[in-house]
Amino acid sequence: MKQVYYAWRTIVNARSTTFIKVLSLGAGLMVAIVLLTIISYYTGMDTGYRDYRKLYMVWTQPKMENESRNPSPMTFGPFSQHINEELSDLVESSTVLTNFYSGGGYFKMDGQEVNSTGVAADSLFFTTMGIEVLKGNPSVELARPGTAFVSTNFVKENFPGGDPIGKHMRFFFDSEDVEIVGVYKSLPPNTSTRPDIVLSMPTVYKLGNNYIGHGWNDQLAWQTLLRVKKGTDIEVLNKKLNNILQKNRPEADGLSYEAMARPINYGVFEYEYTRNMIVILLSTALIVLFIAILNYALLSVSSLSKRAKMIGVHKCNGAGKGTIFSMFIAETTLIVLMSLVVMVATAALFKPMIAELYNDSFGKTPLPDKIIIALVVMAVTIIVGGVIPAHIFSKIPVANVFRRFRERNSLWKRILLFIEFAGVAFVMAWLVMITAQYIYISNKDRGWNIHDKALFMFSRYEPGKVDGIINLTRNMPYIEETAYSAFTPVWGHVGENIYNDEGNAMFYSPYDEISENYIDVMGMTLLQGRAPKNVGEAVVNQTFIKKMNLREENLLDKNPNLTVGTDRHNRQRIVGIIKDYQQSFNEEIKPLIMY
Fold first, then answer.
1. Cα 269 from chain centroid?
2. How far apart are alpha carbons 208 and 271 in whole angstroms?
3. Three-state secondary structure string covering 216-282
4. Could you tell me whether strands 133-135 and 176-184 are parallel, antiparallel, or unpaired per DSSP bridges?
5. How confident is the model at residue 500 (pLDDT cuts 50, 70, 90)?
6. Closest Cα partner for 154 from 182, 175, 112?
7. Using an 8 Å Cβ cutoff, are 126 and 227 in contact?
8. Interior CA angle at 45 toward 43 and 48, to 5°?
9. Number of Cβ within a 10 Å radius of residue 30
10. What is the pLDDT, as a whole number, of residue 382?
11. Residue 580 vs residues 188, 349, 491, 519, 541: alpha-carbon distances, Å
């Protein structure tokens, strides 16, 4: 305890130096802990399932003669059933599901939209995923239409203190009545598929073509997950998955598919954006923490000439090297604890900005994980930042009490300063580069006018709702014009395969469904022709034309007809060409067709 007392007296007497140490160390700890917590959130993605290492997702890669697309986590509806029937020697169980996003008219309760994400799944969903069921029998209830299970979070929000079993919801724009028949434990926030409602698959099948097809010749609109048995060879599994796929969906119209089973958390590291983000955050966290620790160590060592006599006095009173060493470790620990208070206060002050920058991944990370990360960072700070000055001070001889101590400009001190300045220069260069990139992206011509635009979303499935909202907004005095589309340049588009007159797949292209005035309102550049006015008319961008191996000059003279997607009735004749516009700064410009 004496070491702690002397350390505290030293901290109190050197108030100005202590203030600088606490402030700089607090800022460094905050940046490091926040960034490491965010990294922990993303690297722990999809690990909240029971025995998650045995859980795999089936990815599907479409292939055409002239184009090979990236694998997608979506596949065909019947895949799961065939896996359960034909691969029981390798797979414990398999399930199929499809997502419903929050709101959008999918779920209503007491006439109000339920703002919860849901999935439709078969009776093996909970068994396969490894999610704990608290009430109900999913193997029976999810096999019949008109039933749903809800999460504990859903119960807490919608039935506080009550029992949801037996309550009813309306599904798919009031077309179906759904009874709540079970409750399951909510998944952690860092889970890709985290539904609050699990709807029985027969309820979706009952809708037929009003929702999405679920046959082998329909869209890649379903997710297939499987739980492998212990010792399963994934390469053997993939071969058998492809056997099932080729048998039921052989190559047709120049389009074929390949299937592969990948770990449930594979998708997190599949995207270059996520990988780059983790590397950048980790590098920043370590560099900032390293600079803060070195800064603390140098501030401590710089007081060597002032504290040499005090150390000598302690040694004259019987203090050994170990005592002096532990005294400085205690001093470092106290300053780190004080810095922790500054860190918490600063993090609370900037909490909204941190949440906005990183999708609140810091706030969603469980408290125990934050505590563990904070303890590890503090331990590293105490060990590295405390050991350097403690080792130097403990070696001061007793003779310094009786003679003037002159601090030497040692080589090691120059090395420490060089390392610290190099780290600061690196961070400053990084900030300059990021700022330059931000300015470039902010001022780059996107190919459409982003200014004076307001975006709002509504369900396009409800009859009459679109026209009603369009007419309402057009009559507002502060709105110049209103247009609508199925997707937006801000979030990007989904795509379909493009087929020629012979019915062969040529390439994959994002598409959009737009109003006649959409191109004009969005400020896009119409290079040739006109906007689509009637059903069966479309405009395409310049990249789309290049994919067709045609020239812009004579494209409209040919009046090519195309089929978009597997619906052979979705025939489109090109009546206009628009200038390419930037859909994403992370990817090359893609072909686009709008009708």
1. 10
2. 34
3. CCCCCCEEEEEEECCCCCHHHHHHHHHHHHHHHCCCECCEEEEEEEEECCHHHHHCHHHHHHHHHHH
4. antiparallel
5. confident
6. 182
7. no
8. 125
9. 23
10. 86
11. 41, 43, 16, 12, 5
